[in-house]
Structures are given as C-alpha cells and as structure tokens.
What we know:
By secondary structure, the chain is an alpha/beta fold. The chain is built from 17 helices and 18 strands.
Amino acid sequence: MDILIYGTGEFYEANKNLLVASCYNICAFISEDINSEGKLFEGKKIIRLEEIKNYKFDKIVIATEKWIEIEQKILSYGVELEKITIPLISKELCKTDILEQKIHKLKKKTSKPKLAIISYLNDNFVKRFDSYFGVNYDVTFITLNLEQSRLYIDSILKYADICFFEWAGSPLVLASYSAIAKTKPIIARIHRYEVYTNTIKSINWDCVDNIIFIANHVRNKFKRVVNIENDKLSLIHSAFEIEKFTFKCHKKGYNIAYVGDLSYRKNIQLIMLIMKKLKSININYKIYLTGTFENQEYKDYIYHMIKELDINENVVFCGYVPDLNLWLDDKDYIICSSTSEGHISSIQEAMLKGIKPIIYNYEGADEIYPKDYLWNELDEAVNLIVEEKYNSNEYKALIENGFNINDKTKEICNLIDEVCKNYK
Length: 424
C-alpha cells in the first residue's frame, strides 16, 4: 500500500510502529515547515500539502496530535475521507448500540422521506421540532462527536433522503467532502458560535444546498467570512412550543431571574452592578441565577464582587433547574447581560409566561426585540425594572406571533421541499 505521512515530529517518532505497518510503502512525508521543504526524512522527500496532487497514494496517515485541523486541510484538497487514516482512533470504540440502531432505522424503507437530523454534541434546540417534522418526514435524530462522525457520516448520507445538520460542526465538515453528499439534499442550521470558529472555513459549502440562520446579524457575520451566493442563505428565527409554558399576568415585583451559563460571555458582573443599584432603591430586590460557572476563576471573581458590593442577601444561586417553567412562576423579570447571542431561548420562554424582559443591547438584539426592552447602561436596566410599565400580554404576544413553532416548521419544511426539487 502506497502512503503519504503527514508529520515528522515527536508524535511520529513516538508512535511510528503504530502508525506505519510493515506492508506500507512510504512515498513521501508532508510538512508545512518551509525549512523542511525538499529535504529528506528517513530517506523520503518532504513535500508541502499542495504537492500531494503529484503523487499516487492509497492513504494519507496523519502523524500529529493536531489531527482535527490537519484532516480538514487534507479534505479541502479533494482527498476522500476514506483515504485519510488516523490509526490511533479505534473504530470499535466509536461504535455505540444507539448509533448502530439509528443507521439500521435509516436503511429501512418508509412511506415518508427519511430526514436525518445530525447534531454535533447538542440537539436540544432542534429536538423540539420532532413531532412537527414527523408529519411530513420519517425523522431520525443522530448526535455525533468528531470520532463518530468519521465512522458514520457516509452511512447517514447514503441511507437518508434528506440531511439536516444542526450546527456547523465536524459532522458537516466531513459530510461536505464526501462524494455521496453531491447526491443528497443537505441543509445546515447555524446558531451563533460557529461564525467565530475556523470550522466554517473548512466546510465545502458547494455541497450544502441551503443554510438557515436564526438571526440576521449572524447571517451577516457569516457572509463576511464565507463567499457564498445569497440565495443559499435563509433567515428562520428560533421556534417555541407556546403551550408548554403556563401564562399568567405578572406585575411589577422584586424577583429577577437569570437563566444560562455563568460565564465571561454572559457578563454576569453587569447583573451584580445592577443589583447594587436596585438594593439602594429597595432591599427586597433579589436576583435568582441558574446554571454553573464556566470555571473557578470566574466564580471567585463573581463571589468577590458580591462581597465587595455587599449584596450577598440579594443574590441566590440556584444551580441546575429541572423544570424551568415551574421555577419561573414566581419571577417578575428575566434579565440578559450577554456580550453576544443569536437568540436567547430562556428570555423568550419567560416572555411566553408573561414575564418582563430586561435585555442587554447585544449586537442584533434590536432585530428581534422592541427597543423598550433593551438597555445599554446600568441605569437604563434599573429603570426598566423599577418603572410602572408592565404588560404580560404584550410579552407573550411578541413570541407567540413571531416565533411560533407551527409557523417556523412550515418555513423549514417549505425550504426542504424547495431544495428537494433539485434532486428529483
């Protein structure tokens, strides 16, 4: 077997017996170190990655710890996934009974088109569409990590009629370079964080028929990074199951809710400063925070703020909340202080319950929410909380009219049907 080896460093030296079988014929080594170009290593020429087109080979063996980044680069040069080998990853360890069952389900004949929804690690947001998509499609949800993606992605593409990728993660990277991808309708949905990663630069977007964005400002950021025709880019906001949240008319009060991770991006320190101002107005104000801290450093910082601001009695950490709908019942406000968001599900879910939103004016917030709900300065947030204006029906109506899951399901299904027309 003729092979190319990517890597000549310590990782290769330490693992060469595992990486290179005795039956392999090494044609050349690949290195991006310009000082190594043209030199010999173990009697073989060292070449640049772009030179692989000059070689006939059966496999490229990745011999570096940074194999994820390298694999994506190799794929971008037109090398098929099957020709890229990472011997230290065991296929058997990547297999699970659940994934095997899902592939078996996709193989079966069905009366409806088979829709595979492939998520990278987290399918929480798309799972809410399950029963709604089920009206038109035979739906299979598949969640993959990187190693599992390498093992299963071709089978998913082969047996599904339509592939819907939730998040622009490694499953989409690998799928976009598969030969089978050209024969199947492929739709991707992007939320927010993806536009700040290098992953979107690694995807072969020519193989993706349409990309759904949940917010326009995220779509605009994507367009600045990826050169792609506008007719492939769709805006469909997040969706919510209205009936799952119990509505009642709330009123001005003292209980403020925060739902989400406790992280630098979420700007929890701003909430603490707001609480200090609120306490000076009325000692009954309290902030109730769900979630866990990003790390110990940030936790120490926030607890230090609480002590120095003397608001210990006004801050309650609630940890994980199993029933958010119930937990929100006695809350009067829902606050957001994030530096960056696509949508904020917890805000919209609280609004469905009739709770007043207090939303930091992050980039794109004014595309989704009225300016009356937004704040830029601490005093503006405080004023939104202490003012008399409070309208539960208005908050619910905004979400019910603009983010109803029935309407959003129709939009997505119409998009899928349009894409599928090109494959008939």
